[in-house]
Amino acid sequence: MDSDYIFLVFFTVLSQSAAGIFILREVMLYSSYNYMIDKHLRIITLLIAGLIVLIAIITASFHLGKPLQAVHTLRNLKSSWLSREILFILIFSGIILLYLFTEFFTESSSIKISLSISGIIAALGLIVCMSGIYMLKTIPVWNTFLTPSSFFLTSALTGISVMFIIIPAGFGKGSIIYPVFSLLMILSLIVSAFLYFTGETSSVVLFITRLVTGLMALLVPLLIYSGIIPNKMPSRLFLLLLLLFTEIIGRCIFYTGFYKSGL
Amino acid sequence: MPEYAFYINSSACSGCKTCQVACKDKNDLPTGVNWRRVYEIEGGGWKEENGVFVSQPYGYFLSLSCQNCENPECVKACPTTAMHVNASGIVAVDSELCIGCRYCSWACPYGAPQYDQAKKVMTKCNLCEDYLSIGTKPSCVMSCPMRALDFGTWEEITSKYGTGENVFPLPDPSQYKPGIVIKPHRNSAMTRNDKAYIAENEYK
């Protein structure tokens, strides 16, 4: 894998995590789970999502030859998925910032609902545009449904992990979150396996690491869910770090599978 | 149809890389940046015929640069419009706009956009536009000792040589409509039934 791709690995995983956190936050806020998120948690989750997007944008600039000219990236919205991705990440960041202001300065539910809906659209648009970048005719291994699947799964898994590290109920006994998380984790491992076997130059070491850490990320919440490990911050933090690690390895498999048809 | 076209007589190409060197010299290209590249395609090996193993290796050369496609994928992919079709109909890079994201190199099926590590921007074959303006052909064409290369407008080249054939490892031309006419080497027919490869990639 080209060393510059490591910045893209972190950019994609981080920005998809932020999108996942935001979407899950909004879904919980406007569902029967809203009792889990008080005002304090509403602000914290927005701050976390905003901070992650900021780190993602800074990380992405490192893979550019001339990052100071990045202002030109919005010039080709007509045909470039990369331009569209930048537009959506800017809109998404702006909405998070506005939303944060409204949490402090207004209780108007109509403003919050409109920010919530537009934020969800921006977050989904960001992942769709990100997928569009990689779905190139010249790179057959990326030009499949595996690319958007992998990106949406990363979003959902990291979103769940971050939300349930800060929400006390977390992966505790009887929580519906564990079965959902397990299903998504299994799907994520299957997608990784497909990417590994279709990528011509994928590393076997990365794949084995992905499998082992992915299975551990399935086991840890099971132990929390069944009460063997206490549902406390250290174990939930460990799960989050494990999940981020396995997702980063999964994304490295995605990039190492890179080969071009033609020349 | 594309505006311009290169003609390659793969049968006549000896793989001497004079075109590659002439291009590097004329455009003062640094190490690792090759606007024109000579690919060595290989295949074959030991095959069993009537109980006897016989050696049947084959190879041929393809000298390629930017094909100045009618539908340039690099132009579509570029987020800054640095990669554009200029007033002369040539796909060119505006280095003032390029941010060096290298997305054009992913999108191009011919490996034409090349990243200049020192300048931190993408660069590519400009068909020696300055030569064209004084009625001279590109330096690669002028330098070829085998006269295996030619250049002109699409109409000139196709009326002279026909539309040519597609050969391994180039993608289906109907996808990108490249400005290239190839007279294939006789060995390229072998790639229809055999897995050939680009030698440079195989021995990396």
Say how many strands of chain B there are. 12
Low-confidence stretches of chain B: none
CATH topology of chain B: Alpha-Beta Plaits
Amount of beta strand of chain A: under 5%
What's this entry about, in short?
The complex is a heterodimer of chains A (263) and B (204). Chain A is mostly helical.
Describe this structure in words.
The complex is a heterodimer of chains A (about 260) and B (about 200). Chain A is mainly alpha-helical. Chain A has 2 domains: about 1-135; about 140-263. Chain A is built from 8 helices and no strands. In chain A, helix 1 (about 5-30) packs antiparallel against helix 4 (about 110-135), helix 1 (about 5-30) crosses helix 5 (about 145-165) and helix 5 packs antiparallel against helix 8. The radius of gyration of chain A is 19 Å and the shape is globular. Chain B is about 25% helix and about 25% strand. In chain B, the strands form 5 sheets. Chain B has a 3-stranded mixed β-sheet. In chain B, strands 5-2-12 form a 3-stranded antiparallel β-sheet. In chain B, a hairpin with a 5-residue loop joins strand 6 (about 85) and strand 7. Chain B has a single domain (about 5-200), classed as Alpha-Beta Plaits (2-Layer Sandwich). The longest helix of chain B has 10 residues, at about 20-25. Chain B contains 8 helices and 12 strands. By secondary structure, chain B is an alpha+beta fold. Chain B has helices spanning about 20-25, 75, 105, 130-135, 140-145, 155-160, 175, 200; strands at about 5-10, 35-45, 45-50, 50-55, 60-65, 85, 90-95, 115, 120-125, 150-155, 180-185, 195-200. Chain B is globular, with a radius of gyration of 18 Å. Classes of the chains: A mainly alpha (about 260), B alpha+beta (about 200). At the A-B interface, helix 3 of A face helix 2 and helix 3 of B.
